[in-house]
Specification:
Distance between the termini: 74 Å
Strand order of the largest sheet: 11-1-15
CATH topology of the largest domain: Helix Hairpins
Shape: elongated
Strand content: 5-15%
CATH superfamily of the largest domain: Methyl-accepting chemotaxis protein
Number of domains: 3
Order of helices and strands: HHHHEEHHEEEHHHEEEEEHEHHEEEHE
CATH class of the largest domain: Mainly Alpha
Largest sheet: 3 strands, antiparallel
Length: about 550
């Protein structure tokens, strides 16, 4: 009985903190919903936390259920003991009746024996007879007491057993209710979180279109053979103010298929064209006898055989062939040939710009002609057809369609290792802060209050998604004829909603996934405290609000401070 109460007490104590844990979790969710500085800074991390919390609660429920099973086994054992006791009890009651009759009979005999002692002639014999009768009486008395105590103990066990059974039933009912409650509450929290994900800081289709137009205005080159100047590296250029912050993107946003500068580095390190193609198109097979007379319909220029067409592709510098990069030229020739055949099959023609691949009427000679001739008829096949062999000048160290690092010695662990080990690190577009302002020495540096304004914009969009159409860049008119809210108006709107706005950002740190190549989160500190956002959320609103044509152009970016 004492053991049962001890176990029951432990179970009760266990149930109390479990209920408190759940209440804390719900309070935490409510705090996140009311405190706009904390909710959904990192959606993936929040989801993982919810999963871990639910798993922990389920484990606690399982532990309680395990204790209940132990109690049930103990009660079952007690029930068996009671049943055995009841079986024995039938015999004990019969024995009790016999002993009671014997007891009274022996008392009478004892009285007679006592008379015999005084009246009998043989005193010794009378004493022996009296002593014998007395011993029978004592034995009967002990047996009667033992049986009565047994019956009393059995009745107490039965009463205790019934009480334990009733209490256990209540515990099991409470466990079932609590388990259902926990599951339901977490489910509702998840559902609400999903609704917030859809509502909070969501860009409209028009805003996304505007960002695409702004990115397009940067004229980011896709081809390594372009005459476009390299992007600026503002780290050593003084814009005329300090402190200052700039956002640097790794590579161009394309990042699919062959990395032209990466192929160049691979070739200089001794990889041949087939190894390079295998690295960038691992799911395609190389066919070396494709029809060299297959026709390509080139926009504005008519038909060319595939081999004559590839001689007129201006995608990579011919000089690479004299710098140890001949294998890169050959790999590019195969990719260009395959891309043209794929486009012909899909569209019936191919354009002549970087939107497809750069074509000029005059054929190239020298090393490029050698590369085309050496790979004549070589085509990458995807199943039974030429593959979709996308490529670009610079991937920023990552192949997006493969989700892996394009560099040496495994995945980097930080930006320093990335800068040192990426195959395309020599590209003039490897690490760039895109955009500029003439009034600040043609740099993309931002003032701490300008970054604070972008943070405030995100906080306001989170608080009220209907305000999003007022949150465009302030140095240009509203793109659709509406009203753009300046920095002070955004601050006031935040104050009206109970949130302290930022006036200045003092420090920024970036968290990155160096396995696949993306900025996972960005953490900012300023005069209103600290705040975190997912990398994509911050980038989207930065690109909508940042002044001039300053943009973050890819999924992996870093911050520089001077």
């Amino acid at each position: 009985m004492r053991k049962f109460f001890l176990i029951f007490f432990v179970v009760v104590l266990f149930l109390i903190p479990l209920t408190q844990i759940k209440a804390d979790e719900l309070d935490d969710i409510n705090n996140q919903l009311t405190d706009l500085k904390r909710i959904f800074a990192d959606i993936k991390k929040a989801t993982d936390t919810n999963e871990a919390t639910l798993n922990n609660l389920n484990k606690q429920i399982e532990q309680i259920k395990f204790k209940v099973v132990s109690l049930e086994k103990e009660i079952e054992k007690k029930e068996q003991d009671v049943k055995k006791g009841e079986t024995v009890l039938t015999y004990q009651k019969t024995l009790l009746n016999e002993r009671a009759r014997s007891y009274y009979k022996n008392i009478n005999n004892s009285t007679i024996s006592l008379i015999d002692i005084f009246s009998g002639e043989n005193l010794s014999s009378s004493l022996r007879n009296f002593t014998y009768q007395k011993s029978l009486i004592d034995e009967d008395r002990k047996t009667i007491i033992r049986i009565v105590l047994y019956i009393k103990d059995l009745e107490e066990k039965k009463t205790s057993l019934q009480s334990e059974t009733n209490r256990l039933a209540v515990i099991k009912t409470d466990i079932d209710k609590q388990s259902q409650f926990l599951t339901g509450e977490v489910s509702k929290a998840r559902q609400y979180q999903g609704e917030l994900q859809q509502k909070i800081a969501t860009l409209t289709a028009k805003q996304q279109q505007l960002i695409s137009q702004r990115l397009g205005s940067l004229n980011i080159p896709r081809s390594a053979g372009t005459s476009a100047p390299r992007c600026l590296d503002d780290r050593d250029i003084n814009p005329g103010f300090s402190p200052r912050l700039a956002f640097f993107t790794y590579g161009a946003p394309h990042r699919n298929g062959l990395n032209q500068y990466g192929a160049f580095s691979r070739a200089k390190e001794g990889q041949n064209e087939e190894q390079i193609l295998q690295a960038y198109y691992p799911n395609m097979s190389l066919k070396k006898d494709y029809d060299q007379n297959a026709q390509i319909n080139v926009d504005g220029f008519g038909n060319y055989s595939i081999e004559e067409y590839v001689k007129r592709i201006y995608e990579v510098p011919e000089s690479w062939g004299d710098q140890g990069g001949m294998a890169a030229l050959k790999a590019q020739a195969v990719a260009a040939r395959t891309y043209a055949l794929n486009s012909q099959q899909r569209n019936g023609h191919i354009c002549t710009t970087e939107a497809c691949q750069v074509f000029r009427q005059d054929p190239k000679t020298g090393k490029w002609a050698e590369a085309v001739s050496a790979t004549a008829g070589w085509v990458l096949m995807d199943g039974g057809n030429p593959g979709f062999t996308q490529y670009a000048s610079t991937h920023g160290g990552y192949i997006l369609n493969l989700g892996k690092f394009d560099g040496r010695n495994g995945n980097p662990g930080n930006f320093g290792e990335l800068n040192d080990r990426a195959y395309d690190k020599e590209s003039p577009w490897f690490y760039c802060d895109w955009g500029s302002r003439s009034e600040y020495n043609k740099t993309a540096w931002l003032k701490p209050q300008e970054v604070a304004d972008i943070v405030n914009v995100i906080l306001l969009a989170r608080a009220d998604s209907s305000t999003g159409d007022h949150l465009y860049q302030t140095d240009k008119p509203h793109p659709y004829g509406g009203e753009v809210w300046n920095e002070e108006r955004v601050k006031q709107e935040l104050r009206n909603k109970g949130t302290t706005p930022f006036g200045s950002i003092n420090d920024i740190s970036v968290g990155a996934d160096f396995g696949s190549g993306s900025t996972s989160n960005i953490n900012l500190s300023g005069d209103a405290g600290s705040i975190s956002f997912s990398g994509s959320e911050f980038k989207n609103w930065f690109n909508l609000r940042a002044p001039a044509n300053i943009q973050i152009v890819g999924p992996l970016y870093n911050v520089e401070k001077r």
